[in-house]
Specification:
The chain contains 20 helices and 27 strands. It is α/β, with parallel strands linked by helices and 572 residues long. The strands form five sheets. An eight-stranded parallel barrel has the order 14-15-17-18-19-20-21-27, surrounded by six helices. The chain has a five-stranded antiparallel beta sheet with strand order 1-12-11-10-9. Strands 23-22-26-25-24 form a five-stranded antiparallel beta sheet.
């Protein structure tokens, strides 16, 4: 077979007019299993695919795509990255991105001695001798692997012809092959309509074959079909391109291990973890395990009384651990005496003492941030709380330049005049802080009479929609739950808060399952003759919520709290 990638013809391989290609392939990823794209769209043809904040996101040195994950769970897909071996992410962008080559359909793997990665419309082959990507002659590989029969039966694609090209020059070979298109003007127009047609399509491998309902041209890198009857993905007379990468994956010529989607997990997300001193042993153990995956550590060391008295103390081992891994440490202070604290905020003198008290916590140079958690105050304290945060922010920037201020704020789906989440002016608070940490839980609490998840995904979507309309995305950190809530159905509330590891013995005796409608897990068990219902989070439910957060263009998430979580969250 003629191979464009040999040394004699490398100059042809590297000519890539991708801007024209991007404009020509307007039919995108249409038809069965994403296998075809149209070059002459019918009036209702689908638009070209584009990057979506909902389904792909930036990761270090690259991008992660979930669009072609098949039946894999949400959050799974394929990464396209630059590394010391091959800069596939840079090449992907240079070659026109999704519009030109489609979404990735495989991981990297080694094929015929080269590092490659399959995309829907092309297979990248890294050529270190020229420092760029070539497209693999995918349909030559079908012949090499004995898959021509499969291709003809499953994809109505002719077998390669035998050409007598002995003694012909390269230009003569090209001319001879292109004559195969002369009697098929629609296919010919499609073949030449992609800009750098030789590099993108390769040479025709056989004469156009008429199968009765479709005429098919097999080239080295594409299959071009002119449908003669209406089919779900094309009208009669319409020309479509088969996606070489998709067809190669379907045929099994790409190694199965390479086609397995990757667990995107927390890749590309900025993750905050809360350590709590009141459960030091468990929380520190979890912090020690999680620290390589965390980007920020919030340490709940302190309480603040209405009179400005700070109680609690820092744990040196927590400070040392964060410093050893280079993670910013934010010291957290929480108010006491909820209603009286609201009264203190209303008194300028008492509020001034509170401001000085919290600023004093930044005197340790190992501390990079101050994290405020002011909860339970009356709704009428709304303006006083905003004044307090503004005064803390002003003092921090004057006396501790370079340090950051964050605040934990209860979630809500609408403006409120009363209730736990009422005294928070989202817009004005967000203007003062560096990070607005949304406590995205509380739909059900230990006091609820009806069991249910604390963060059902439908409610979370409403919370996020409300919040992003009022808080800049670049400041938002979405804190998600890691604990379980166990209701004794006979005794009623309050329910008991549990760690994930507390549930492990119960999982073997109860009925458990993931409830996709709410993105959480439910466990039902009986103990001492009394029925219990537990709602809990694990890696799967947590990542489902992380994916939902990404749908709103957000990449910072936190977990409350370390010591409660499913340890599997930290697996790669």
């Amino acid at each position: 077979m003629i191979r464009l990638a040999n040394s004699r013809r490398q100059d042809v391989m590297v000519r890539t007019v991708y801007a024209a290609f991007l404009l020509a392939l307007v039919g995108a990823v249409a038809a069965p299993a994403g296998a075809y794209h149209s070059v002459s769209p019918a009036p209702d043809a689908q638009a070209s695919p584009s990057f979506s904040a909902q389904e792909d996101w930036d990761i270090p040195n690259g991008h992660f795509f979930t669009q072609a994950r098949g039946n894999a769970p949400p959050g799974w897909g394929y990464s396209v990255t630059d590394d010391v071996v091959a800069p596939f992410w840079s090449e992907f962008r240079r070659l026109g991105g999704v519009q030109a080559v489609g979404y990735p359909v495989s991981r990297r793997f080694v094929w015929n001695g080269f590092v490659v990665q399959a995309f829907q419309k092309a297979v990248f082959q890294w050529r270190p001798e020229v420092g760029r990507v070539y497209f693999v002659n995918v349909f030559d590989e079908f012949t090499n692997l004995g898959k021509d029969g499969w291709l003809e039966v499953v994809r109505s694609t002719p077998r390669p012809a035998q050409f007598n090209e002995q003694g012909l020059s390269w230009d003569q070979i090209i001319t001879q092959r292109l004559r195969l298109l002369d009697d098929y003007p629609a296919i010919r127009a499609a073949y030449f309509g992609v800009g750098d047609w030789l590099n993108l399509n390769g040479l025709p491998m056989a004469p156009v074959k008429d199968y009765g309902n479709v005429r098919v041209l097999r080239a080295q890198r594409v299959i071009i079909q002119q449908w003669l009857v209406d089919v779900p993905w094309a009208r009669a007379g319409q020309v479509v391109f088969a996606n070489g990468g998709d067809v190669a994956k379907e045929a099994g010529i790409i190694p199965q291990a390479a086609t397995q989607p990757e667990d995107g997990g927390l890749v590309g997300s900025e993750l905050w973890g809360y350590y709590v001193a009141y459960d030091h042993t468990r929380s520190y153990e979890s912090l020690s395990r999680a620290i390589p995956r965390l980007d920020h550590v919030v340490a709940y060391f302190y309480h603040l009384s209405p009179n400005g008295e700070v109680t609690g103390s820092a744990r040196p081992e927590v400070i040392r651990l964060a410093a050893a891994y280079g993670r910013p440490l934010h010291v957290m202070v929480k108010n006491q005496a909820d209603v009286e604290f609201g009264w203190a905020l209303a008194d300028p003198a008492r509020r001034g003492r509170l401001v000085e008290a919290v600023l004093s916590l930044l005197s340790d140079p190992a501390v990079q941030g101050l994290h405020l958690d002011i909860e339970g105050i009356p709704a009428e304290s709304r303006d006083d709380l905003t004044r307090f945060v503004a005064e803390v922010a002003a003092g921090l920037r004057t006396r501790y330049p370079g340090r950051v201020l964050s605040q934990a704020v209860p979630a809500r789906t609408r403006d409120l005049a009363s209730g736990w989440a009422a005294p928070y002016d989202y817009t004005r608070l967000a203007a003062q802080v560096d990070y607005f940490v949304l406590m995205a839980y509380g739909f059900r609490t230990e006091a609820s009479t009806t069991p249910g998840p604390t963060t059902p995904t439908d409610w979370l979507a409403q919370v996020l929609a409300y919040t992003v309309a009022r808080v800049p995305r670049e400041k938002l950190v979405v804190s998600l739950p890691w604990w379980a809530t166990d209701w004794n159905l006979a005794a009623g509330p309050p329910a008991a808060s549990r760690r994930y590891t507390d549930l492990l013995p119960l999982l073997t005796i109860g009925e458990t399952g993931y409830i996709p409608e709410v993105g959480a897990n439910r466990l039902r068990y009986t103990q001492s003759g009394q029925a219990h219902e537990v709602w809990f989070e694990d890696r799967r439910s947590f990542l489902a919520k992380v994916e939902l957060v990404r749908r709103y263009g957000l990449n910072r998430v936190a977990g409350w709290r370390l010591g409660h979580e499913d340890p599997a969250i930290w697996q790669p």
